[in-house]
Amino acid sequence: MIPPEEGEQLGLFPKEATPEPLLCWLWLAHTLGFASPRAERVVDWCDDPVRIWEERDSLAFREAAGPSAARRAVAPGNTPWAFRTVVTQCQRLGIHILTYDHPDYPLALTRIPDLPLVLYCTGDPSWLNAPNLVGMVGSRRPDNYGRWGASSLGQDLARSGVVIVSGLADGLDSECHQAAVDVHAPTIGVQGVPIDRTYPASNRMLRTHIEDYGCVIGEYGPGEEAHVRSSFLQRNRLIAGLVQALVVVQAREKSGTMSTVGHAERYGRPVYALPGDASRENSSGTNRLIQTGRAKMILCAGDLLEQLGLEETAPAPAKAPALSDKERRVLACLKQEPASLEDLSAGCGLEAAALSAVLMSLELCGYVKSLPGQRYIRL
User: What pTM does this model have?
Assistant: First the structure.
């Protein structure tokens, strides 16, 4: 990011011009901070980033964003134009910037309270909205049983139409990604480091293969400073938020994997775990998840496929169809509680006839379910 005083001298930060929406999204994400618990509240108040910038000193913004972010919003030098260098870097490196209103932004993340307002992506971002995304996570120091479980389960799931999501870390994350790559299936890596870096560096070749078949995403832009411990814990919420279900292959009771489980529980995602030898510490966490009822036991891919409504002979996964602006607007208005046609019409600004057509299209695509009394719920 260009220092404010240098940018002003170069005339890069015009004071009166209206900034581009992309720059405003980058500014807002920076202003709220990573994993902000108020992100959903801000976009519920207003999902127009230019208007948010223009009303950054308003009471409504302060109430939505909170006092700390409100102070940062009006701090000298914190302007949308300061993020032009980020856009330039991403263009040069072939990195996609996915803002909250971008067609490829994952819809699954739009309804979590600490949603990322901006994601960075390499590879094909359209896989982020594919059906049947399943998280697979586990120990960074697995034993042979854990590696077997990741490879066996991962390959069977990938062959059956599941898109595996994991953290591109050492150990079982890598094994799960590799399982999908081995059967030429898409997989999604979620990073906790800047998007132009790969951690660990030994996974560079694996990352290249992931990008060939799927994509890699993260919240940190190129060259951005990341606080390693907190950034990986924040990364875990994205894995949990993206997926329909989470599979824990092998983990100790006290491990980073358990933070991903906690996020999945918070977001209402079902958790599954592969049982292991009770005498092995590596399997103590997965066994305890099953024992306490926090996870359902999974013995083979078929156990999960049945829950997802898939068959072991299912075709290769397909990308989700592109959604129109009206469809995305309606989905953003819908929550997991039933909403009437009248309420949706008022919230989305669409006439009843046009709204009905959009809802029918979304229902056919499996995004929405109609209920008696002209009520609708988001799936």
Answer: 0.84
Q: List, in order of start, the domains of the chain with CATH numbers.
A: 4-93 (no CATH), 122-308 (3.40.50.450), 325-378 (1.10.10.10)
pLDDT-derived band at 282, boundaries 50, 70, 90: very high
pLDDT tens digits for range 296-355: 999 999 999 988 877 776 556 666 666 777 777 777 777 667 888 788 877 777 888 888
Q: Which residue has the tokens 């999960």?
A: 304
**Tokens linked to 58:** 């308003």
